[in-house]
Design brief:
Two copies of one chain form a homodimer. Chain A is α/β, with parallel strands linked by helices and 363 residues long. In chain A, 46% of the residues lie in helices and 17% in strands. In chain A, β5, α5 and β6 form a beta-alpha-beta unit. In chain A, α4 crosses α5 and α11 crosses α14.
Chain lengths: 363, 363
């Protein structure tokens, strides 16, 4: 088992990473919580696939948790979905000394964490991400959120868990396109972090994409450490943390305009290619760097499927993104190796061209 | 104009108190905010009564604010009410660099502050309380919240404004029972703070109840200073801050079971009398102290109207209060002068008796 401490101004908390570590849940919980009543908010698909693995959460020696089954989907990630969690807790008289444990992917985690942050002005929260994507991305950094009027994560809070447990055994049942989603954020991290992590992901990306998780513990450890460092420097995303949105301006538009048929991590890879193209045209990356990054993504490009959407429509969607409310679209673009340019602006023509380039790349 | 700084770990912000100080809103805003787009969430009754006073908020020299008219009532203080604010902002493309200014009583402030704390994970917020009650109570301390399934302030956050502007000119149009509401929290503060403030409120309470606000600036200054000190010591209400709930276990039950026909401050005074009675029976206050506090409240007791509700029903409502989810009712009770006992428990019989005593007192 590996452990990373997230050090924030207000709070420090650990992230545990390992295969099968959930079997020790009882011990971890008892070491941290004496009297808290526990509610588990679990994605119902995860419960179906991993009933045995989840038993340590529910049948603890000293107390029993009650389970809220969440039908995790973007269309339930909203205030109505949150209200169901509130009602579940309220009807069962959960008080301020309560703890919500979420078990599921990013949708489950973001929703449960938002509920935890607002139920009686905040109760304790533990996150058990069960997908590669949520393990390396949404479970780290304290962003909670739900969709509002079709705009993703429009309503939310900054709220940190007591700890995060990444048990890599969950990944065994991930469908191929979910693994690609996780790789989307990992590729992004590799482009941002550069150096050693760039090389180790480059060397293992095909194996991971094929469902071989032998070296995944180290990959996750490095990716989480990188994100933890960024978040610790700029928790509220006033500056540096924006780099984590590399390619995301494009990807949010693709997700939205596909009616969320394209999953987040897949859209991120598409978005990174579009951002790379924009970077090249704005002379922010060298031709050689551009080519080597495209070659990196090339290792999984066949697994990316983004339906053709008019670039004009994607452009308009970017304008209505929550980060671009002032009428100008801000991009995070790849820069020189291990660097990114934040708050970049670009001509509409160049943006449309970058989208076309990305479509051609994945054709 | 008086000024108090609230000093918290994360943030320090000022509270301005004075008659007519809203006329300088333009200057105050321009000194603090350069680029923020401003939305004013105003109680529609306040807009009707004080259109002239609110003009400086809307027609600023450098920018115009848009006004969201809020129909402030307990039945709109919920997720549906919050959603209307979200939609108002979203449709007008308010971005992260936005500021919500609320103008109204506690319902308007609590609701607008919750919206500000969750819109795009938090935008800036300024509170202009227009009632005596909200000026001395809800506008100080960073508690935001809305009702959920009929339970008051069940959903919320801790979130602080950039500043609070208490312009006492608003009080001129307060109906008599609203003034009593403010006095309810002021009496509570006097019982907690003791000393000089106890005496000055004792000497001026009848004048204030009659609508004479000549000395109100000093009264508010002292009450806000007291609450600010408590909040600074224990922002998240883990210990000391609980004293501010003196009498509130009773008052929340009265409000709920009257269908919110009894207003908060009125219910607080009723609750303080019940708590006093419980304290006396548990030997937490002397007979002399008990008598002198009842005499204090006696100055306004004729203005308190609480319909008769079965003590048993009130007891059950207390059990379902959000602070008592563990099955035991926790009271904050008056102790020796300038003191209070927190997390007190009592026999059901004693609690019922205290409620009957309070009803007899106000008969």
């Amino acid at each position: 088992m590996k452990k990373i401490e997230i050090e924030l101004r207000e709070k420090t908390y650990p992230i545990f990473i390992g295969a099968g570590i959930l079997r020790n849940f009882d011990k971890i919980i008892d070491a941290s919580f004496k009297n808290e009543r526990i509610a588990v908010a679990a994605d119902k698909r995860v419960v179906k696939l991993h009933r045995q693995k989840l038993l340590p959460l529910i049948n603890m020696k000293k107390r029993k948790a009650e389970v809220f089954l969440f039908d995790a989907s973007e269309k339930n990630k909203n205030l109505a979905g949150i209200s169901k969690i509130y009602s579940f807790l309220q009807e069962r008289n959960y008080g301020r000394d309560s703890l919500i444990v979420s078990a599921g992917g990013g949708i489950t985690g973001d929703t449960a964490a938002f509920a935890a942050s607002t139920y009686m002005r905040g109760i304790k929260y533990v996150n058990i991400p069960t997908t590669l994507l949520s393990a390396v991305d949404s479970s780290i950094g304290g962003k909670t959120g739900v969709n509002f009027n079709g705009i993703k994560n429009f309503i939310g809070t900054f709220y940190h868990p007591e700890f995060v447990i990444i048990d890599t055994e969950f990944f065994a049942t991930l469908p191929a396109d979910e693994i690609i989603c996780g790789l989307g954020e990992l590729v992004k991290t590799a482009f941002l972090a550069g150096g050693k992590f760039y090389n180790s992901l480059y060397n293992s990306i095909e194996e991971i994409a094929g469902g071989n998780f032998k070296g995944i513990e180290n990959i996750i450890y490095d990716a989480v450490s990188f994100k933890a460092g960024v978040v610790a420097s700029d928790e509220k995303e006033k500056g540096l943390r924006k780099i984590l949105n590399l390619g995301h301006t494009f990807s949010h538009a693709v997700e939205k305009e596909s009616g969320f048929a394209v999953k987040h991590g897949q859209a991120v890879i598409f978005g990174i290619v579009a951002a790379l193209s924009l970077s090249k045209n704005m002379a922010l990356v060298t031709a050689r760097d551009y080519a080597s990054k495209l070659e990196f993504i090339g290792k999984i490009k066949k697994k990316i499927k983004v339906p053709l959407i008019s670039p004009e429509i994607l452009y308009d969607a970017m304008l209505s993104d929550k980060k671009n409310r002032s009428g100008r679209i801000k991009f995070v673009l790849p820069g020189m190796p291990g660097n990114a340019v934040i708050d970049a602006e670009a001509d509409k023509k160049q943006v449309l061209k970058a989208i076309v380039t990305a479509y051609n790349y994945f054709k």
